[in-house]
Amino acid sequence: MNSTKASGVPAGEAAAAARDGAADTAAGVPSSAAGDTRPAAPGRDPLWRMIALARPRSTRFVLGVVLGALATGSGVALLSVAAWLIAKAAEHPPITALSVAVVATRALGISRGVTRYLERLVTHDAAFRTLADVRVRVYERLARTEPVRRFRSGDLVSRLVSDTDATQDLLVRGLTPPLAALLTGGATVLFGTVLLVPGGLLLGTGLVLAGVAVPLVAAALGRRPGRRQADARGELSTALVDTLYGAPDLVAYGAMERAVQRVNDADAELTRVARRDAAVLGFGAGAASLITGLTVWGTLLLGVTAVQGGTLSAISLAVLVLTALAAFETVAPLPAVAARLGAIRAGGERLFGILDTPPSVAAPARADRPLPEPAESAGTTGADPDGDDGAAGDGDSGLRVRSLRVRYAPDEPWALNGVDLAVPPGRTVAVVGPSGAGKSTLAAVLLRFRDPDSGTVELHGADITEYAADEVRAAVTGVPQDPHIFASTVRENLRLAAAPDADDERLWEALERARLADEVRAMPEGLGTEVGSHGMRLSGGMRQRLALARALLAAPRVLVLDEPTAHLDPDARDAVVADVLAAAEGYSTLLITHDLAGLDRVDDVYVVAEGEVVQHGTHEELSADEQGWYARALRA
Q: Low complexity bias located where (predicted)?
């Protein structure tokens, strides 16, 4: 029997709390994972980073800007030609003198509608495609780094929906209109200057004030409400999700009224912020209208003076005034867009808070290499080839953990500190210890949800970090502490782990092995029975057995069971342990648990405390060591 490294109940709860705090912190480091083509560094302004997301479709957006300029230019030209036509018609010229203007008016009216439609078609198509790429990138990042636990569920929903949609708002409303306004406004000012220099300069000044100064003020006023609106939306989403999913417990403990009040408070805060945002929008629209009116009146006064002085004709005066009035249509949307920049920037920050989350598992240099097959001559002896105390192994066969060290941040304590253990082929090994000892961290490393900081995990002699994560998970799989049961049928929940076309015979075999077949046969529709959201129609023990059957269907080389009896009452716990161990017979199985029930049926037991292996041996050997943690836990 191996010697005991430490005795007494360790104080691992503080370390666990520190690790949880570190895990909830989303780092701002760019991903180095393969396939990430995100074009900007995290230090840049979120608005520029969001615009850079559209770089693959820059040609479409340039075309959209050109079409938008043509549409607004057609509108300005239409009013200018119409002004000339009306003023000229007052002189009663021959109809032939008006024919060109009449045709031009019709052509401009048609081109305005056509180019506006094409501009919307091109820019929205490019924006929606970019938005789809962003959503796919977010989902891939969530799947690759598993940062879901770092965000509150409702807040994560808000980031995936509202904050991701901010990219579309910026590209459609904040990119094309300003550039189109710049092109059209510049051409209009040049045309006005040709007609009357003072009138063109005044028009240019008015356009700069309405299209630049007012939007800048609106952007400054909308920065804080925009940021608070994004946070308030996330808080409301979180409160709603928590209340909905926690309704049974809230009702049982009489806390539903407080939960509903929390939702009402979050909604009231979002309403207050929305009102302030509306006030900023109103200011922008009012200021732009005021500048438009003053500029048109000023242009009219300058034109009348020029007509009286003989430097401008009456027809040119009509053209100049109506052109000035039409020109402000090009900058009319800009204050509203600028007022929204604060909310868009805040949404971008929250979006990149997900995209900048570093991968927990680095991509291997060669992701296409298959894992080596187990040696046919491998035995199942417990001799350690390296002679290390506290570990067992059998050469290159089975699962072997060597000097494993993991922590969640450089200034945090080690979650795992030099752990050595082995799971020989066909053997069942248990890892036990108090809460916060590092057991779940060990499961995360084995299932490739985290990389070791040092040390290795070897499967049949191969370091699992050198192979694709999905390749490793196909060989090392299991049942997590809180398995997710999908709101579907028993059949579809099982097929998730096998193939979509797995026949019912395979499914029943897995259910038989997990000792769930009789319960499923008793259900109204058997394998086709709906299990409800999160498997609410199943008992806790049935959910665990269903997850176990799903894992068995994957036919892994190593089966990892992380706290399979969590949240179960004592009677159900003993039955599930018996069923789990019976179902795992013949597999290389690692049972991670704080519950000592049924461990007399396993081959080896490792006791982990504060990230270290403090005891190792069989159930009988550890029970005989009365000073060790295992024996004291049994007595307790």
A: 19-28
Please report which helix (H) or strand (E) contains residue 68, including its range: helix 58-89
Give the model's pLDDT for residue 291: 94
Whole-number pLDDT of residue 65: 92
Query: CA separation (Å) from 586 to 36, 421, 424, 447, 547?
Result: 41, 19, 11, 20, 18
The span from the CA of 356 to the CA of 171, in Å, is 21
Arithmetic mean of pLDDT, 495-503: 75
Q: Are 142 and 148 in contact (CB under 8 A)?
A: yes
Query: Residue 241 is which amino acid?
Result: V
Residues β-bridged to residue 593: 432
411: which 2 tokens? 């200034």
d(Cα 153, Cα 234) in Å, to the nearest integer? 10
pLDDT at 24 over 70: no
pLDDT over 90 percentage in the chain: 24
CA–chain centroid gap for 562, Å, is 26
Which amino acid type is present at position 586? G
**Residues 541, 539: Cα–Cα separation, whole Å:** 5
What local confidence, expressed as pLDDT, does residue 27 receive?
32
| Topology of domain 36-355, CATH | ABC transporter transmembrane region fold (1.20.1560)
Q: Which residues of 278-294 are buried (b: 16+ CB within 10 A; e: fewer)?
A: eebbebbbebbeebbee
> pTM score, two decimals?
0.67
- Tens digits of per-residue pLDDT, 168-185? 888 888 888 899 999 999
Q: 3-state DSSP call for residue 481?
A: coil
Q: Which CATH entry fits the domain spanning 399-484+555-635: 3.90.245.10, 3.80.10.10, 3.40.50.300, 3.20.20.140? A: 3.40.50.300
Residue 588, beta-bridge partner list = 558
Q: What angle do CA 410, 416, 418 make, to 5 degrees?
A: 105
